[in-house]
Amino acid sequence: MNLTSKNIAIIGLGYVGLPLAVEFGKQRPVLGFDIASARIAELQAGRDHTLECSSEDLATATQLRFSCQPDDLHACHVFIVTVPTPVDKANRPDMTPLIKASETVAHALKVGDIVIYESTVYPGATEEVCVPVLERVSGLRFNHDFFCGYSPERINPGDRVNTLTKIKKITSGSTPAVADAVDELYSSIITAGTHKASSLKVAEAAKVIENTQRDLNIALVNELSVIFDRLGIDTLDVLEAAGSKWNFLPFRPGMVGGHCIGVDPYYLTHKAEEVGYHPQVILAGRRINDNMARYVARNTIKRMLKNGLDVPRCRIGVLGVTFKENCPDIRNSKVIDMVREFQSWGAQVVVTDPWADAQEVLHEYGLTLGTVDASNPVDSLVVAVGHNEYRQATPADLRSYCRGTKPVLADVKSLYNRHHAADAGFTVFRL
């Protein structure tokens, strides 16, 4: 099976789909499809608000065109689905975007076509959830009329070093011939090489455990941070000392949000429970990480109270609302949980972020971004995200943002020398 002459459609043009469409679009005809007309208009104008692709990147993809019209998909024969796979408020997998994308593709599906999924799912989801939708809507038979592949995304938003082509790609197919074809397709753009998995399920499982492993490692250091705080030991000092051993893993404590690490383990545990096993270690790690935002807020409040600050009458500044540094992505940001905790104590919270889109923050979380500086001072400060703009600030700069004599600085990412911050007049808390 040869896919080199077949037109490709990328379904979903977010952080994952757009870089993929651009790379393929440098070599062959590609249709970038998204249901959001505003997103299509933005890309047609050569702009990408996610900042994953520059205007120059978009210009190099000379064979890439964009559309929000489902009828345009009929001219394509390879469909790569890159829509998000979130969880609901009960942390259950929300397959709605994946199901709707499969329905859209199915209307354009023809004999001989291939549908490749990149969205992170639990092992078996492609065949158990997506394939039945494709068959029902198209009237075609799986592995007879059409075929499927699974090649999990490994995009790291905001990372300008480990980009799409430089990360080894896992590939798989629903038959051996399809597996070979899918692998060859991705090999044409991935300079780091590919790894052909033995089945769709293996590829799905490989992806979901990548982030589960990282989640658990962060949960461990988060729990250690809680313990060390009670022992009066600085966590970073401990980690730096332990890191002098060659095989010590350099994980740092923090709030785990975003579209992957904070979400993917729930897909695996959901499937595990479906087959009669209740995961203990994975869910314990999730509980720890999900509670860290409230832990930061409560420890900040505790120190404010010890300093004689009347929390319900205080303004607390929060620097950063995106889920990670130097990236505009606000999906599943745990900073929001921290803000809600402060608000539950009656404090006025001022959130600022030079990377986040103010309209998106307002739409998703009902928060209006403000300003925290010397002319708009606060009573205590939380540096929640390690943006370069905040790393370049000094403790003296931060102190100028605060009024009163005993402000608290919660340095979530340990960006600053704690002794210098104390000398500047802060009571310091950090994970």
Question: Which terms would index this structure?
Answer:
431 residues, alpha/beta, 6-stranded parallel β-sheet, 5-stranded parallel β-sheet
Structural overview:
By secondary structure, this protein is of the alpha/beta class. It is 40% helix and 12% strand. Helix 7 packs across helix 9, helix 7 runs parallel beside helix 10 and helix 10 packs across helix 11. The chain is elongated and about 75 Å long. The protein starts with 7 loop residues before the first strand and ends with a strand. The model has no long low-confidence stretch (mean pLDDT 94).
Summarize the structure.
With 431 residues, the chain is of the alpha/beta class. The chain has 15 helices and 13 strands.
